[in-house]
Amino acid sequence: MNENPKHILHVEDDVSVQKYISTLISGLARVTSVSTLRDAQARVKETRYDLIIIDFTLPDGSGSELIGQLAKQDPSIPIIVFSAHEIANTMLNVKQTFLKNRYSPKIFLDTVTKYLGNT
């Protein structure tokens, strides 16, 4: 079990992507994965996360709904969008966007590290 006090919420409906990202960033923080917008909305009401990684296309809605909720609830939480679809990076708390089919794992890790405040 990761003893790191940092905590990431990963919102992704594809279980294989959940497992891959969890493995990739497991040394940086504890990762909680959920697969629906509804589960993510419930989690952010009960827990404060240090970083949230969001897929934009979810089975019960859009990641943009969660981003809007977080902008009102706690705009200081950095968000990374990791999605198959390009989006405009204009939302207040979205720090970085990555396309699933065109990204570098090293740059992704460096970005996660940066926004967690890990050195």
Topology readout:
Layout: E1 7-11, H1 15-25, E2 30-34, H2 37-46, E3 51-54, E4 57-58, E5 61-62, H3 63-73, E6 79-83, E7 94-99, H4 105-116
Parallel strand pairs: 1-2, 1-3, 3-6, 6-7
Antiparallel strand pairs: 4-5
What does this entry look like structurally?
α2 runs parallel beside α3 (63-73). The chain is an alpha/beta fold and 119 residues long. 37% of the residues lie in helices and 24% in strands. A hairpin with a 2-residue loop joins β4 and β5 (61-62).
Strand percent estimate: 15-25%
CATH architecture: 3-Layer(aba) Sandwich
Instruction: Outline the low-pLDDT stretches.
Output: none
CATH names the topology as: Rossmann fold
Shape: globular
* CATH level 1 name: Alpha Beta
Averaging pLDDT over every residue, what do you get? 87
Return the structural class.
alpha/beta
Distance between the termini: 20 Å
Alpha plus pi helix count: 4
Please list the strands of the largest sheet in the order they lie side by side.
Answer: 2-1-3-6-7
